[in-house]
Automatic annotation (TrEMBL):
Pfam families: MPTase-PolyVal, MutS_I
Gene3D superfamilies associated with the record: DNA repair protein MutS, domain I
Taxon lineage: Bacteria, Pseudomonadati, Bacteroidota, Bacteroidia, Bacteroidales
Origin species: Phocaeicola massiliensis B84634 = Timone 84634 = DSM 17679 = JCM 13223
Source species, domain of life: Bacteria
Protein name: DNA mismatch repair protein mutS
Compositionally biased residues, Basic and acidic residues: 658-687
Biological process terms in GO annotation: mismatch repair
All residue ranges annotated as the DNA mismatch repair protein MutS-like N-terminal domain in the record: 694-792
Amino acid sequence: MEEKNQQEKMAIVRQVELFENAFNKAKENGGMWLDNDGRKAPKLYLKPLQISAFNAIILGMHSDQNGYKTNQYTLFSEAKKRGESVQTKEKGVPFLWYNWNEYVNKHNPEEKISRSDYQALPADKQEDYKGIRNREVRSLFNIEQTTLPMVDKTTFDTVVKETGPLKDRTDVESASNEIRQGVENLLEQSRKKLVDIRTDTTGVAHYDSKKDIVFLPPASSYEHYEDYARDAVSMLMSATGHQQRLAREGMVVKNGKVSEDAMKQERLVVEVASAVKLQELGISAKLSPDSMKMTDYWLRELKEDPHLPDILERDVNNAIDMIHKAERGEKVELNNRVLQNQIADIKHILPKHYYVADEIKTLPNIDTKEFVVIKEPEQKMADVVLPSGASLGVENEIPGMNKGRIEHALQKEGYETVTFYNIDGSMGYRPDDSFFDGKEVSVNRMNKWNLETLTLLDVSDAVRRSGAIDFEKILMLRNDEGKWALYLKPENEKSFSVYPEKADLNLFFTTIKQGDEETSEKVRQDLAQKYYMAAQNSPDIKVDLFKSDATAEELARIDRVNIFKTKGTESTPSVILCMPTVNGEKLKAREISPQQWQRMWLAEDMQDYKKHLAASLFADVLRKDRTDAVAVGTDKSEQETQSKNPNQQTEVYEEQTEEKSRQSESHGPSESKGNKSKDESPKTETKVTAEFSPMLKQFYELKSKHPDAILLFRCGDFYETYSNDAEKAAKILGITLSKSNHTKDAEGKPLMIAGFPHHALDVYLPKLIRAGERIAICDQLETPRQEKDVTEKQKNESDNQEENKVSRMHR
């Protein structure tokens, strides 16, 4: 999961605090942890925007715990625009705000498009993309925290009468009926579109996950209708977590058994999701006696496990989205059934082939009394293709091909249903080749009352070409960025990989976790069929996990590659190393990942894969002749020995020729305009003023020498970048872009800042380079006081000394 910024961390603390208050309240109030009392679900005041399920429960708890009359919330800025400022000392509640400004191709994660480009695509093309969500944390305030009740009491009272507690509503009876009708509609739609709901006379509501059935006592058996509604909603939420529906993120199944911790976590998801739906219905949420025993465990896990709040958010949002889908009348099927439908859809759009039917047409013969039989043993069905005479009329029969005798002979062999066809005409026989998968095709004739088989037809090749194929291997592999890819090796064909959709990934892994080998194999085969046919229809979705972006020239320089495992000891674990020989010289070995080791044994050309792997690991060495680069990814000692001057800290990574690099170095800021060559492109000089801090002065001085590079500046435990560089880096890396309230940039505007922890450099640097950017790195060795002294000294240094700040040039 992505590293959280400080704002997100503070939001989680606040969210957990709300849960803690709610669960403590439940201990004192008979399990009641969200007292809704008929209030309508949380909304943004005067805004039609939809609120996610997890945001809704956070707002609901905030409103309940502060005794607000409505669940209506607003942004500080929106309240200010309306002239209803937030009251002094009021504390907001965190709201997770998501933007989808970029979309990525599901089959090619390298292809990303903007929101406007996505919206311009036709609907069928949009299905190939999914949104990349960008999360922000904003503070919302209940309208009672604003001055609305004071500056416009009439409007506030109207809002309370429309959305507040039952006792404050205009028509209490109508509001009560609305709640009951909402529950009945939910159950009716869920029964039709989501899960089978049956009446249970035992008096105990429960969900049978094996049968996928909700058992619910009649409403009349409950003392209060709200208790019936709570049980009904809770069982529906349990049904959404079926392994073939949502497969909760935190649900871990080992050898077909669910761990105790996983069961407790699932219970938390069910209780929170139930509370969200009950809040929509206007009913208070109440913990079951069993759940009451788990509250301390939940709170401890929420505080100690940094991933659990994110898991809870996603699982709750997905559960409620599924319920909403059923309420809208959309069918919610189990994942394996959805997969079967997708396979059928792909088959439908693929071109059909009729090689088998065309061959069968030539085989029946009136003179030799031969006909074709297509047998389907599992279904106990047989089709018989005659040269003619397949009509119902007895007078059309051909001597020696009596339909009654043929049918009788097949029935003796166990075929209960026999259907007759002709080679053409109204009863002609012409199914496509996929129809013959698993069927036996033969040429026969009658020998008295028995069938005599003359020839068996091999239709396997035609069936394979139709899409029904066998696979030697079906695996999930990780690429070097950690993304899962489905690796397929069809029989007698070359292997390839595709990036499956998230739902298919969940289906693949959760089915395996259930421990049912037969079901797992069926899902694997279905996924293989789906993506094989999808690749046949759209070959561009195939990806090659066994190649690098190395050039032919670079690969040619690699003489041989030795990959081996070291022998582990008690103190030192075994590692896998790659040691190539480049231009006759053995290089120092570098470690490879277990995923790269696994792919080596799957590669159809192992030697070719090893060369590409070495080219990727040692890219800095292979390109050394064209650059003064120090190896990106080499250890510290190697960098120090290659550095000409340990006090010179700037490292520039570029994709230019050696000659161009030397030219770039030769043009320092000390050159006068008259000394510039005619073909040299003009450079924009940044004015460094005395108002900047010593560090920012140094940044702009170095930036003036490398205006086309993003400058990463070491500041304590972080690498930071500023101004336009910060905007570029934030967009490429997906890190937070912030604006300084105290420091101005060279144009007098608030300084833009983006950064990441120094230990993450090896993660972010390759991303910047792959994006085509030229990168400069400046490490900060002196303290701020020392930096100030150095800055004063630099005023008297010569231009040549200034140029020596740049120590190493890199590709």
